[in-house]
Design a protein that fits this description.
The structure is a single chain. By secondary structure, the chain is of the alpha+beta class. The protein folds into two domains: 68 residues, Double Stranded RNA Binding Domain; 35 residues, no CATH class. The protein has four helices and three strands; from the N terminus they run αβββααα. A three-stranded antiparallel beta sheet has the order 1-2-3, covered by helices on one side. Strand 1 and strand 2 form a beta hairpin. Helix 1 crosses helix 2 and helix 3 crosses helix 4. The longest helix has 22 residues. The radius of gyration is 21 Å and the shape is elongated.
Amino acid sequence: MSIAEKNDLNYYLEQPYNVVIKPVQDESGSYYAAKVLEFDGCIAAGGSWEEARNAIYEVLEGFIEDMLAEGEAIPEPIGDEQFSGNLRVRMPKSLHRDLSQAAKLEGVSLNQYLINKLSK
């Protein structure tokens, strides 16, 4: 591996990617599943939270090495700065009417009504 590739690998491994680790209990037993949200298919598991964490970073390193070798674009971490807080949603007129009427009955704006419903 050349120094340039190694520097690129280290750069990406130091990025704050979004790693999700959660306990799982299914027919195969109890374990922890981990995934990196920015990399489709970058998943790992371990018997403990720490094992799953170590495993996912090993898998992530392999993903990045392969992508660098293939010349593929490597995703940047998803951060809060990428979200404006605005969302445009298309819906049937009948649903828009029903939601507007429900908001009016609650005495709040449609925006506040939707935020309240979505946050539950």
